[in-house]
Amino acid sequence: MIINITSTQLLDSNKSLINAVFDANLDAVLNAAFDVNNEAASNTGVKKDLATDSLPIIIFSGDGVFAQSSTAALLDALLAKRKALSKEAEASPSKTMLFAVKEDLALRGACVANHVSIINHREFAELANRHQQWVTL
């Protein structure tokens, strides 16, 4: 799943949605890591991204590049959850889940936050092609 942030500020309800998506997907991935038949993941009620079988990612695009600073605490919490998962399920903690579009950063004079990878429009399109589910905030 891609969570595409295009707003400069996120409402509390948006932050709750992001937390719920990551919590549900982390639980599904953790369960799948310990279940060879992958039955536990399907029983969680979470439809994992079928194209990549991966955790959700966040992309800051458009005016959303400014939301990086206002969501720093949320992003830190998500990174901590992923790090904890990587220890439990032996997944790679280096997998990037936070992206900002280079052209949008440059156009708006915004800076990139810690742990956010910069991508161009082509890479954004490639990510979009690999993830079937989208939420735009």
Q: Please give the share of residues in helix.
A: 40-55%
* Oligomeric nature of the chains: single chain
Task: Note the overall shape.
Answer: globular
How many angstroms separate the termini?
Answer: 13 Å
For the secondary structure, the number of strands is 5
Q: Ranges with pLDDT <50 over ≥5 residues?
A: 33-53, 88-94
The helix/strand class is alpha/beta
Give the C-alpha Rg: 15 Å
Please count the helical segments: 6
The succession of helices and strands, N to C, reads EHHEHHEHEHE
The average pLDDT value, as a whole number, equals 75
Main sheet overview:
5 strands, parallel
Overview features:
6 helices, globular, 137 residues, five-stranded parallel sheet, alpha/beta
Structural features, described:
The protein has 137 residues and is an alpha/beta fold. 49% of the residues lie in helices and 13% in strands. A five-stranded parallel beta sheet has the order 4-3-2-1-5. α1 (12-34) packs parallel to α4 (72-89). The chain is globular and about 35 Å long. Residues 33-53 and 88-94 have low confidence and may be disordered.
What can be said about this structure in brief?
With 137 residues, this protein is α/β, with parallel strands linked by helices. The chain has helices at residues 12-34, 39-43, 67-70, 72-89, 102-108, 121-130; strands at 2-5, 57-60, 98-101, 117-119, 134-136. Helix content is 49%, strand content 13%.
